[in-house]
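INTERNAL AUDIT FORM
Audit reference: QA-55
Scope: verify that the stored structure record matches its stored sequence.
Auditor: D.O.
Record contents follow.
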Amino acid sequence: MPNPSHPKKRSTLQSPSSLKTIDHVILGALFETQEDYIRAIHQYNQALLYDSTSASLYISIAENYQKVGELESARLVLERGISHNGNDRGLLTQSGDLLFMMGRFDEAAERFEHTVEIYPDDYEAWYSLGSLYIRIGKHLDAVECYDRVMELNGPDMDILVRQATVLSLAKEYEKAIKAYERMYYLQPNDDLIPFTIGGLYLELGDSLRADSAFKMATELNPTIQRYWDLRIRLSVILRDTAKTINLIDEALNNNPESTELLSLSSSVYSQYERFDDAETYLLRAADLDSNDISHLINLGFLYHELKRWDDAEKIYIRALAVNNNDALLNNNYAYMLAEIGEKYDVALNHVNIALDSEPDNPSFLDTKGWLLYLLGDYSEAIIFLEKAASSTPDNPEILDHLGEVYFALGSKERAIVMWTRAIEQGGDEDEIRPKLAR
């Protein structure tokens, strides 16, 4: 076939329809910059009359509908666009995001499932799909989506946090631990990560590995009290006395003014019957925070248990000078006075203050009932003690007191039942057996 001697020039002219499309698009963009969204929508719709397959036009119209709050109109426009150009990534993504915004999560998930099927390398679509799976309860599917995101876009702390959280909620603790370990690789100085790993090992019942993770947390940040708190409590549970004492020393060396750790240490030493150490730590805590009477209450309780009555009374009076309305403080002081057999009227005033705050507290009811018994008012005493026992039927001290009142009222068989139950529930046999013999 012969060729022309000169190549034929291509025409640079555009068709009238193309020019009209451009004119409407320009006008639409102008109205949009002026925040006149309704007129912008009109112009973009005019442009669609000349180019019904333009994905960008459908997206622009939908965005402007969203700006005026017409979400359903925006959705319908995007559906029209997808019907003309169903594989356009922008249309699919915009539609999925809008459905998410409208709370139509199942439909949004279907839209993003279609998107990643066509565009498997779109990590943003995978991310959105993962978020939707969480919304509709497909937690493990969400984890797989986040795995895909990181395959495409590299490790990401935000994604790993989401993934680990979802796995924890799904009780997939071992997989969650692996996610946190990947986080720790990215941020090896973040003490919260090994602390969280320790908590997950506790969920798995692996105390030794939990302790190892908590140890890493304390090494990274030895000034966080709750890390030491958990390690100490865990060591107590594991019955490792020597380690517990060493941990207490380490914790207080790093946090010498932590009243929380001092209080915990006192509790542990009381359990080990090292009462001098327990007293020392509570006194330090009380001196460090004179406004927190909980340390004084605990100290008064310690003196009570040791029957150091004078010391107990001094501490309770010191605490009352700080807060004379605290319910627990008033109850404990009243019960101490009952124990030493003094100032019953004063004790009644204090327990009444406690009951004004917590009228159904069984310990407070027991204290008042016992005081009334000591005052010889058995008919009133039984009312308070029976109410206390109805709330805590297995409390050996309340059962013991009930036995005393029943015996005083002549109900010996009921007294025997109460004292027998008190022994069964761990009451002091050396004190209760003679009563049964009586």
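Auditor finding: record pair retrieved intact. DSSP finds 25 helices and no strands in the chain.
Action required: none
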